[in-house]
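Record minuted for completeness.

…
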Amino acid sequence: MLSLKLVQGTYNSYQSDGYFIFLPEGFSFTGEYEFVTKEFPHAQGLLKQHGFTGKKADSYTLSTEKNGSFVHYIFLGLGDESNASYDSIVESRRRSIARGIQIAKKLKLSEISTVIPAVAEGGQYASMIEQLGVAAIMMTYEFETFKSSKKDAKPWSATLTFLSESCEESECQSSVERASIVGHAMNSTTRYFADLPPNIATPTYLSKKAEELAKKYDLSFKSFGREKAESLGMGGFCSVDIGSDQDGKFVILEYKSGKSDAPTIALCGKGVTFDTGGISLKPSNYMTGMKYDMSGAAAVLGIMSIIGQLKPAVNLIGLMPFVENMPSGKASRQDDIITHLNGKTTEIKNTDAEGRLILSDALAYAEEFYKPDTVIDIATLTGACVVALGHFYTGLISNNDELIASLRKSGQKTGDRVWPLPLDDDYRAGIKSEVADIANIALSSYSGGTIEAAVYLQNFVTSSSWAHLDIAGTAHDVPAINYVGKGSTGASVRLLVDYILSKSR
């Protein structure tokens, strides 16, 4: 557990057992780092002798005595910042502070202090604290629940203290508190639930956990199964749910701001707790990791718990269709035709394109019963998105240019980045069906699987500004970004929390 704290002070005035010192390539000990050469006259030469030149991967720990106590100065390289954009500088510092947290954990330090990096000027101080605080907490996440050797081990606990003499105290304190809420909610809710094995994280289990979160954070809770879904005409949800012995749950959490002019935002998260592909069965090597097919819904759970604590002037609804996609004698077949809540019909051409079937009813439900100003769905929807964008950008498709711009801005700010893909009319013929309104996969001649999936979903949004986030490549096992670690990354939580807060009135 990592706690965050703000102190009005400097390296010289504040005593802790560890200090992070951020240095770019070509560094010199000036400004807040002048004390280094005063205490260690040969520090620059010592660092270079040990291979530390300020490159992004560089780190060096200098252990010494301060005021009668043993302390560790942890030097962290930032790379060449001379022509870097502000957003890339912040990202570099996220990864640097994550390396520092890793070192501090190995040294079992109880408190680490750092000044707010000098690149932050004026109002950017508070933002920098928030971004670094979230990344530091994310770096502490480990999923070891089922490792018997770890059950009796005492978890590492420490405090990360931000030192400042320039930051406006109330603003920076708010950033510290917000970073703590976001970081810990991502770890304990979104990432933890997504990492749970599918024999534990069933639709019923996740529905109960959603109810617990609702009670804890004063959210309204609703959950229903196939019987009510059938009565509502939610053929997409029912067609996926019917093949499993695990009962599906359509879960709704709602946060009400109490302000009459507050905007209403609906989030729809794909919640397939395990995806075999159904009758269109996946090969076994493609089935490992399919527990992460509920990462969109896990993100919504995390976001709802965060908004329940921050209490912005926004009305927020989280809709999570939890199902297990299994082959059985009851399972949906290719060639089946189903009717959705909004009356549209779908020809099922592939039962492994199930996420769009449950999301379609979630989107239609949001519009029918809540009439949101904005609706955003989050889903590990297509392998095509991984091919298109790899693991570092979430695919973004929207019917609203302003919404695209806002989400891109939040993505750049938080490091939870998105990249827009087109939504042109030329793609629409790809999902035409000869026997129903639409088909759940496109003709092979059209390709563009990520876009075609979004075109399908757009059929269930008629009046709201809408965005689709395909997190297939960003939801888990992202390489090279240290603070997201192994397993679940919490993709889209930082992005959407920032976006939602920006809409608070």
User: Anything to note?
Assistant: The two ends are 33 Å apart (CA to CA).
